[in-house]
Design a protein that fits this description.
Layout (H helix, E strand, L loop, with lengths): L6 H24 L6 H15 L2 E2 L18 E4 L2 E3 L13 E10 L2 E10 L6 H19 L7 H15 L9 E3 L6 E5 L16 E4 L2 E3 L5 E3 L6 E3 L5 E3 L2 E6 L2 E4 L11
Antiparallel strand pairs: 1-4, 2-4, 3-11, 4-5, 6-7, 6-8, 8-13, 9-12, 10-11, 13-14
Length: 262
């Protein structure tokens, strides 16, 4: 079931979105060589507590994970791309780090992700990979207009990946959200224009392009959560929460992705 949100409810989600975006910006800057992932997890917990927010990840137990998840942020390094479990790992110069964060404030959720390169040693191929996910996110957002179809968003995202030479996995993608983190519909990162659900004002979606430099297949770590590229190639993930309005798409997690390159 898809719940259409009122303008007032979207405004409440935007308040949550501002906090999510600010937290990701703060943690992205802190993600420097020598910093342990557990330090970033701890700071995220402190920021949540100070704001009076509620983590959407803590105790989350979906069918695809070995629940419950007992952290407040997903931190995925290099070939890890989704659901990275924070652990005792010290970041190194040149690491590719994806940060995925979702909370609820006053009963309304926002979800966003950024990928950054740690330190000063960045491979051009990693920068290009990250940039492709940002461009795909922009394309997906631009396609989220009333009267369009869900497939328009998926196709716009997938076309950017294909044109850049990346393979797209459609198993994990974007999703609806609002009162909870995961609601209908599923938003695949590839699709066909003119197909699928009719886009209507009041729909709120998390769009999240992600892919690897190589394989589109995933393998799971022994922790039961962290998903990695099957061939060990580096990955990137970018996400915004948006609302579809009468005048077009509105980003509720203000643009930070393109600014976070470390």
């Amino acid at each position: 079931m898809i719940e259409l949100k009122t303008a007032n409810e979207i405004a409440k989600m935007a308040v949550t979105g501002e906090f999510v975006a600010d937290t990701l910006a703060t943690l992205s800057i802190e993600a420097q060589p020598g910093v342990n992932l557990l330090q970033l997890e701890q700071h995220a917990r402190e920021l949540i507590a100070e704001r009076g927010a509620t983590s959407c990840y803590w105790d989350y137990a979906p069918s695809f994970g070995r629940g419950p998840f007992r952290n407040v942020i997903c931190l995925s390094v290099n070939d890890a791309v989704l659901h990275g479990l924070p652990h005792d790992y010290v970041l190194r110069d040149g690491d590719v780090l994806s940060l995925d964060f979702a909370v609820s404030i006053d009963g309304w959720v926002a979800d966003s992700a950024v990928t950054v390169i740690v330190g000063d040693s960045a491979e051009p191929a990693d920068r290009a990979l990250i940039e492709s996910t940002r461009k795909a996110l922009d394309a997906g957002i631009a396609a989220a207009v009333p009267g369009g179809r869900l497939g328009d968003i998926s196709a716009a995202i997938g076309d950017v990946a294909t044109e850049a030479g990346y393979r797209v996995n459609a198993e994990f993608g974007g999703h609806g959200l609002g009162r909870t983190m995961h609601e209908d519909p599923h938003v695949a990162n590839r699709g066909r224009r003119g197909r699928g659900l009719l886009l209507r004002p009041g729909m709120t979606l998390a769009l999240e392009p992600w892919w690897a430099r190589g394989s589109d297949r995933l393998v799971m770590d022994a922790d039961g959560w962290t998903l990695r590229s099957a061939d060990g190639s580096n990955t990137a993930h970018c996400e915004h929460t948006i609302a579809i309005t009468e005048s077009g798409p509105r980003v509720l997690t203000p643009s930070r992705c393109a600014q976070q390159t470390n």
